[in-house]
Design brief:
3 domains, 18 helices
Length: 490
Amino acid sequence: MALKKKVNYQPLIPLDQLKIDIKKRDIVAKITDEQRFAARELVKSFHGDEVYSWKENQKRPTFIDNLFVKVLGYEKQENRQGESFSLLTEYKDATGTIPDGLLGMFDVDELQDPTTLKPVGFVEVEDASYSFGAKRTDKRKGMDQAFDYRSKFSYQTGVTQFEIVTNFVELRIYTHDKLHAHSIDLTNLTDDEVLSELLYFLAPANILPELFEKTEDLAPVVQVQQRVEDENRKGISISAGRASEMGELHDKFIKAGFKQHQADKMIVRLAFLMFCEDTDVIEMNLFKRYLSERVRAADPDNRMDRIHRLFQAVDTPDDSQRENLTKLSGFPYINGGLFKVSRDDFPEFADISDDIIDTIYEAAKQNWSKVNPIVFGSMYEGAMNTQIRHELGAHYTPEDDILKVINGLFMDDLRARFLAIVKGGANVISKLLDFKRQLSHLHFLDPACGSGNFLIVSYRELRSGLKSIFETGFKRHSEPRLPSTAQINH
């Protein structure tokens, strides 16, 4: 029976980025026959469900040899003819602390002076019942010990240290904190996809600086982490810039005669169209063409009607009716009611000046593809004056805070249920399909949704996160004539 556990971490790097980098580095093709054989032997040694009763003090030495020496390729001191080695086990320092394993490039002489040891990895093995901090009995074990060991040793400046914790069944890799990790299902190590992930994170050439390729000075996972952080910073900057531009446009609508709620709807709708155009939902430059050919070219008195017709068009399912409304082909139907217009959405009289059209056009020319969709929340809040915002209780919640809430409410539980199914042994495919059906019937209510950021992030996490693990789960447990991927219904 599979060990049930609570998913109590965020991924070290996004799963889609991990897959891209593994493919880019061609890791699967570099797996040797010896590594595949060693992985099969390791899984065979588990003797099915017997592994779930393993005790650390009985199985640790052989397990470390099988995983770190035979599969990953580290070299222990006793296996070396020379003076250097990369795996040190049962090392006892002056305080009596004994890490289960240290990874690095060590010399025999360094063992005489432990202050010179600079490990890159700290390995801690626990009983199979260990749940990575999810139970009270996990306290001061596993990851707590691994992080404690890190503080006791010297380190190389600019080199990331890895904390590696395993209960034989699962292995988790940490870098900077206990809140972010990558999990490896060791019971599926015979799968090349799982084995490639293990090698990506922990192969000596990928974490020991002395073995890095000349063109690299950081571990692959650290390079992706930095790239993602840079993209996030760039996205935050872009999002803030776009929100500011739309705020200025909002002011111009108010001066042109729009009421507050009319200007609010206008900028959110326009911003959404700009975002769609730069993310391939709408044909590239089609919105800008409509602005220049159909709106700006019209008499000032007719410009409002042209904008109104565009909103009507994208709210119309029929292709011919959409083209008739816009006089341009290519605009898609956008469901959800965002563009469902009423008489009160537009002022009876308003001066849509060249300045307003130019401002919209210039905003549309910017790159909206990197804008976080939840920036619409900041537009929604920023569009209101302080008094109205206070009266309505409208408040834009940052994404980090939203993730903390939804992970605790349902995402952690859904991930744990998925993992329990995958590791449950029999009838995995049928159980996954049933789980997929259950997800398609989930309903979410946010009674004070405001801009809908909680709902947007919840939907995004269900789509991206669970779709990724579904793909992995179906691929590993697929049978003839059964689908290898699953799509979350929405």
